[in-house]
Automatic annotation (TrEMBL):
Subcellular location(s) of the protein: Membrane
Gene Ontology terms: cellular component: membrane
Keywords, alphabetical: Membrane, Transmembrane, Transmembrane helix
Organism per entry: Chryseobacterium gallinarum
InterPro entries on file: PMP3
Keyword Lyase: no
Coiled-coil segments: none
Record field: transmembrane: 26-46
Family in the record: Belongs to the UPF0057 (PMP3) family.
Protein name, as recorded: Iduronate sulfatase
Length: 66
């Protein structure tokens, strides 16, 4: 989470989203764009975590039905 706030573009790069990271870096280069870039990175990280959690729940439910 700290990485997403301090270096938003790097947060995307570490998660394998290279093109998104480059776009975020371009936004981050401007002083005004730093805040939107940080917000974008944090929201993206939270969405990825929620998707991962949802997939685990679906998998667990499917295993219980068998």
């Amino acid at each position: 989470m700290l990485l997403a706030i301090l270096l938003p573009f790097l947060s995307f790069m570490v998660r394998g989203k290279i093109i998104t990271g480059i776009i975020c870096l371009i936004l981050q280069i401007t002083l005004i764009g730093w805040l939107p870039a940080a917000i974008w990175a944090v929201l993206s990280l939270n969405n990825a975590r929620a998707d991962k959690r949802t997939n685990r729940l679906i998998k667990a439910m499917q295993e219980n039905q068998k």
